[in-house]
Design a protein that fits this description.
Length: about 300
């Protein structure tokens, strides 16, 4: 069975991954209604479940390798994700496009996601839209589009029909000290900021993050955690402005980085994450007239 679990309501169970869902593992959420069931983000540890988890549908918050790592271990009728992430779930080409992996790294990244994360490509997977509701009998799961991390990133509001209990599953809005991740080709800083503005409107008894925090109890604690998480964005911008006190090329900025602490940059995709993130902050600072470029180097205006 999985490392540990916690029941949040008669319908909702959190299946914790190892070390509170530390990457590459994560925390999955099982929702069993009176006539249907779903598992949200089946993680790597699903492969250790005996007997296998059996549900009518797998729902993903988004199509990243760690969130779909347990799909192959779950017995399920259907696998669904927001339609903007659907190509990444259906084929490896779609997944590589979502990441924005440089051609030279595609083979190695493909090996990583297929061997370590059990990625199969699910051509029959289906897409849903913002606001779609999955009625499971006595409890429902509502998709709330929360883009930025990926284009299709979705949080789920799980609510008992009698209104007695509500849980929000936040996916990779993981409320970690790392802060928001918008380092893929199909990520967006602007969309992530809009999502962060929207999140406090989701009032619930519990909030489940895929990594790190696990379960947060109560709306007040959730809003505090969102604020602390969001603070990483201005912190990165300040780091970039600090670097631009002297003229630097884009490549020099990427070498130093604003996202990962020194010595913690992941070997395979870390450079790409820094480049995508710096590009997004830089674009905004240039637009605002705070940074100028002579075509080669950037510096404070
Ligand atoms: Zn992710």
């Amino acid at each position: 069975m999985v490392a540990s679990q916690r029941s949040l309501s008669p319908y909702v169970t959190v299946l914790f991954g190892h070390e509170q869902g530390k990457y590459p593992d994560g925390n999955s959420v099982l929702v069993r209604g009176t006539h249907s069931s779903v598992v949200i983000d089946p993680a790597l540890s699903m492969h250790a479940a005996t007997p296998p988890v059996e549900v009518d549908r797998v729902l993903l918050t988004h199509a990243h390798e760690d969130h779909l790592a347990g799909v192959a271990a779950v017995v399920a009728g259907e696998v669904s994700v927001h339609h903007r992430d659907l190509p990444a779930l259906q084929s490896i080409d779609g997944l590589m496009a979502l990441y924005g992996v440089p051609v030279a790294a595609v083979a190695e990244m493909t090996a990583l996601v297929t061997e370590r994360f059990h990625y199969k490509g699910w051509p029959d997977a289906t897409g849903f839209d913002d606001g779609d509701v999955f009625d499971l009998g006595g409890v429902s799961v509502r998709a709330v589009h929360a883009p930025g991390h990926t284009g299709g990133h979705t949080v789920y509001v799980v609510e008992s029909d009698d209104g007695s209990h509500r849980t929000v599953v936040t996916g990779d809005i993981d409320l970690s000290s790392f802060g928001p991740y918008y380092g893929d080709a199909q990520s967006s800083l602007e969309e992530f900021e809009a999502t962060l503005q929207m999140l406090p409107s989701l009032v619930a008894d519990h909030y489940v993050t895929f990594h790190h925090k696990g379960v947060i109890d109560g709306h007040e604690s959730f809003v505090e955690a969102v604020d602390a998480f969001a603070a990483a964005i201005p912190r990165r911008e300040a780091a970039l402005l600090h670097l631009l006190r002297e003229p630097r090329t884009f490549a020099e900025l990427c070498d130093i980085g604003i996202v990962y602490r020194p010595g913690t940059r992941p070997p395979l995709f870390g450079d790409g994450v820094e480049a995508h993130s710096i590009e997004r902050h830089l674009h905004r600072l240039v637009e605002a007239g705070r940074v100028v470029s002579d075509g080669t180097r950037y510096e404070l205006a």
